[in-house]
Amino acid sequence: MPLAISYEAWRNYIKAKEGAKQKILDERQQRKNQIAKRKEDQAKKKLEMVKRREAFREKRKQKKNKIQCAECQDELISDVEEDDLKNIGCNGCPRWYHLKRTTECGKSYVDVAIEKYVCHLCINEKD
Ligand SMILES: [Zn+2]
Ligand SMILES: [Zn+2]
């Protein structure tokens, strides 16, 4: 029955054509999904980066609020008994030091404070 065969062949042809069309549509959808996912991932990464940067900034701010010794990076405490642990501020820059970390180490705090202390970094800069 040639008619039946040709009908069968026609059906297969249509089926194949529709299948190919569907495949293209599926692939297109897949690509769209991939792009959407990539965009989502990028947005997530960006958000994470912004959060991390904010956390870092906050940490640095907190660090700045503490006065640190420019030499040993330890926190400077204003009410200490020992002279060599007291803070001495440079008169040439905004840096602060433990007295024991300066060239004035061993002198009495009051003497150094009166003398208008200038740190070794400022002295080196002048050279
Ligand atoms: Zn120090
Ligand atoms: Zn200085």
What secondary-structure arrangement, pairings included, does this model have?
Blueprint (H helix, E strand, L loop, with lengths): L1 H64 L21 E3 L6 E3 L10 H6 L5 H7 L1
Antiparallel strand pairs: 1-2
Bound molecules: zinc ion (2 copies).
One zinc ion binds next to strand 2.
What does this structure look like?
With 127 residues, the protein is mainly alpha-helical. The chain has two domains: 65 residues; 44 residues, no CATH class. Helix content is 61%, strand content 5%. The protein is built from three helices and two strands; from the N terminus they run αββαα. It has a two-stranded antiparallel sheet. A hairpin with a 6-residue loop joins β1 and β2. The longest helix has 64 residues. The protein is rod-shaped. It starts with a helix and ends with a helix. The mean pLDDT is 90. One zinc ion (ZN) binds next to α3.
Give a short synopsis of this structure.
The protein has 127 residues and is mainly alpha-helical. 61% of the residues lie in helices and 5% in strands.
Strand content: under 5%
The DSSP helix count reads 3
Number of domains: 2
SS-based structural class? mainly alpha
Q: Roughly what percent helix?
A: 55-70%
For the largest beta-sheet, the strand count, sense and barrel status come to: 2 strands, antiparallel
Cα gyration radius (Å):
37 Å
| Bound ligands | zinc ion
Spatial sequence of strands, sheet with the most strands: 1-2
Number of beta-strand segments: 2
Principal-axes shape call: rod-shaped
Distance between the termini: 109 Å
Keywords: Coiled coil
Coiled coil: 33-73
InterPro entries: Znf_FYVE_PHD, Znf_RING/FYVE/PHD
